[in-house]
Amino acid sequence: MKMTMLIIFLLIFGLSTSFGQSNFYDILSDSTLTLTKQNVTYDPAYFRLDYPNGDVPSNKGVCTDVVIRVYRKLGIDLQKEVHEDMEQNFDQYPKNWGSVHTDKNIDHRRVPNLMTFFTRNGTVLVNSTNPEDYSAGDIVCWNLGGSVTHIGIVVKEKSTDGRRNLVVHNIGSGQVLEDCLFNFKIIGHYRYQN
Fold first, then answer.
1. Contacts of 154 by beta carbon, 8 Å cutoff, 6+ apart
2. Which of 70, 82, 103, 136 is placed for a possible disulfide with 108 were both Cys, Cβ 3.0 to 4.6 Å?
3. How wide is the angle at C-alpha 45 spanned by C-alphas 39 and 47, nearest 5°?
């Protein structure tokens, strides 16, 4: 009898705690949405940053800052993580800017570097035009034309027709929520949880 009661208690306790918790990517999605409430001006300027946990002024940013800021809200410092991975594996990262060494002020703010980091340390997902392949918390990278790249985070909210998840990104109008998942050529699709 005691064993049966113990099993029932553990079953009930286990179910109640699992239903009461959101997964990491749901929390990431909700946290990403809070960024859209901040007034941010698109500003690609080079800034000297504190290290670790450095950030550009809170009223400025680019697309990568959306990703950096939301992960920082969850206790993950991509500035530090990207810098440390680049220090150990510099030859694996793009040399698009003529870099000969790491720069903790800017390396994590470059889309190709984040793509390399997520490929090396996260989960690479399929690039497709099927909306069902994209879930809240996914990181998506696009080619806007030529060598211009972009990054954003997929959230739980859906398009008005209910077919696609929306994206939070900064493509020049601040940190905004938009139905833009398939507006550009997708060149990267990742999940990352430290």
1. 29, 134, 135, 136, 137, 138, 139, 140, 165, 166, 167, 181
2. 82
3. 95
**Which amino acid appears at position 99 of this protein?**
S
Q: At what angle do helices 63-73 and 111-121 cross, to 10 degrees?
A: 40
Alpha carbons within 13 angstroms on the beta-carbon side of residue 65 total: 29
How far is 82 from 84, CA to CA, in rounded Å? 6
In terms of residues, how long is the chain?
A: 194
Structure token pair of residue 30: 């909700």
Contact by Cβ (8 Å): 68, 108: yes
**Contact present, 147 and 94 (Cβ < 8 Å):** no
pTM: 0.89
The pairs formed by 57-62 with CB atoms below 8 angstroms and a separation of 24 or more are: 61/170, 61/175, 62/109, 62/170
pLDDT in tens, 27-69: 999 999 999 999 999 999 999 999 999 999 999 999 999 999 9
- Domains observed in the chain: 23-191 (3.90.1720)
Beta carbons of 161 and 154 less than 8 angstroms apart = no
Q: Output the six-digit token pair for 21.
A: 């918790």
CA distance 101 to 107: 10
Location of structure tokens 């035009």: 129
